[in-house]
Amino acid sequence: MRNGKKSVLVINGPNLNLLGTREPHLYGHETLKDIETAGVKQGEDLDANVEFFQSNWEGAIVDKIQEARTNGTDGIVINPGGLTHTSVALRDALLGVSIPFIELHVANIHAREEWRHHSYFSDKAKAIIVGCGAAGYEYAITHVVNKFPNKENVDV
């Protein structure tokens, strides 16, 4: 919790900054900015803090996850993008901070190429949201706010 409110960190990995323009037949027409604006408003409506972070750099995402360990983040929603299928470093960071997380994918990764079916996160995620488009973010934020336990700011 931060300032008496549930705190949700939403992380978007590589290429998700291109939502709305990159392969809209797969990912839809909503931009990442649209999703962020809706998510912040949703947080206000739920009396929660919702913070968004996007990077094309794996190390920056690891740093953000580690920062969440001590700032009162109650839950993480992560759309790792292409790092889903490759990143042991992100998996280790998520496990290392002991913050429950939801794995999210805008498109259905199981209906795509075979190599996209494997995830380094699914077996440790509290929930997985796949193929719901931008609405998946709304579902994930609601779930974290309503179902995840509170974590106090520990400032280690």
TrEMBL record:
Active-site residues per Swiss-Prot or TrEMBL entry: Y27 (proton acceptor), H105 (proton donor)
Role this protein plays: Is involved in the catabolism of quinate. Allows the utilization of quinate as carbon source via the beta-ketoadipate pathway.
Protein name: Catabolic 3-dehydroquinase
Classification via CDD domains: DHQase_II
Pathway involvement of the protein, from the record: Aromatic compound metabolism; 3,4-dihydroxybenzoate biosynthesis; 3,4-dihydroxybenzoate from 3-dehydroquinate: step 1/2
Keyword set, alphabetical order: Lyase, Quinate metabolism
Record-listed substrate binding positions: N79, H85, D92, R116
Any one of the GO BP annotations: quinate catabolic process
Gene that specifies this protein: qutE
